[in-house]
Fold this protein.
Amino acid sequence: MLAIRLTAEPERLGALVLPVRPGAADDAQAEPMPTGVAPPDGIIDEVAALIPVARLHGRAGEVHTQLRPGGTPRRLLLLGIGAADEAAWRAGGAALARAAKDETHVTLALPAGVAPEAVRGLVEGLLLGSYRFRLGADTDAPTLTDVDLAVADSEAYEQAVTVARTTARMTRLARDLTNMPSSVKNPQWFAEQVAEAVADLPGLTLRVREPEQLAAEGFGGILAVGGGSASGPRLVELDWRPAEARTHVVLVGKGITFDTGGISIKPVPAMKLMRKDMAGAAAVVAATLGVAALRLPVRVTTLAPLAENMVSGAAFRPGDVIRHYGGLTSETTNSDAEGRLVLADALAYAVQELKPDLLVDLATLTGANSVALGTRTGALYSDNDQLAEELLAAISSAGESAWRMPLPNDYVEHLGSDLADLHSAPTQGASSVLAALYLREFTGDLRDRWLHIDMSAPSWCERADAELTRGATGWGVRGLLRWLAALD
């Protein structure tokens, strides 16, 4: 990650960044913002003369670079920050990271009196917009390694920078886990990555159930989905339990490390990106690591049911009846609707054994998510209005997007089965809604304190856009951390 330093006395002025904002009138040219640390003599007048020539409007993420051979600074970058709120600064930070990728270091003079939230957004944008994932040689790797933030009072922003750095680091971890090809990534590998991360964070406890333990305890859904693979399933249980915690939250994340669709095999175009089918598990694990790193006073237990859904003689069949943790049974007529089966086990275990105050699950569950809401927005389901509103607000303020969807009772009849307690993948009705209704059947006494997010669409991005880079987005880490930090 970029090294970001707060300084009241900037020394490295080879590349200086100055913020500009839109003018007062619509479509007016940009205007420079007064900075807390004065730039070199004559620079402000030069900026005022440059803005109309460069036709800058000050929109968030707009960047103009001016060469100044022999001068100090040698390069002057004008950065548009739009409305100057947290979101605009986040977009500006990401744009700056890309525009200055050939520099070694830059100094950004922040406006006088800039809000800590704006600095948080800026740092997140810098660190997320500069993210890259490659396993081979990267001949076009950015050379930018250091960013100095020039402010009059650096102590006022230290906490904001710390939170932003931790949030970005955990989002990048979720991206790394999700981007990793499934030739490397299987349930055992994922569990090992969690164990490695936990080793650096005191106060976290980790338990990993292997196939023998899963069978002994009755996790039938996880075992069924993982049974067709030579790489056995796992259940990761990660617990953060501070002494001062008054609220216990269980996070559950779908962890299918590759999804062929099983016997109900996917077509190749639908299968090629199925390494991302564990993005929910990556998000909840990374968020819990972030909670521990920030020492937040809330108890968090994360469950990541991990399996590889493969085709073999040991794979579960369409029409099989699966007995889940706790005894409920599911008739499954589509082995490509496997995510809900592993989630059902984890949810039932959370309700019966952990008894939390709140239960939240994230899953790349259905393609219908993108049909309904496009590529950037998760589908949020809950019977609890307050929980839904608070999490939606946290997701939005963190720069992510979700939309609340209904849980209509007239769809519940489609979950009926002649063979089992439930039909896991009925074909009637809206599939994302039906999947949520099916999961709700495993929430027991926590039904009114449960929330589900289908985040299949926003877990992946096909092109760079603001703080998002092509590939895995790490969606959910930022929103969860913002929400957990606000809990009493």
Summary: DSSP finds 14 helices and 21 strands in the chain. The mean pLDDT is 95. The first strand starts at residue 3 and ends at 7. Residues 103 and 144 are 5 Å apart (CA to CA).
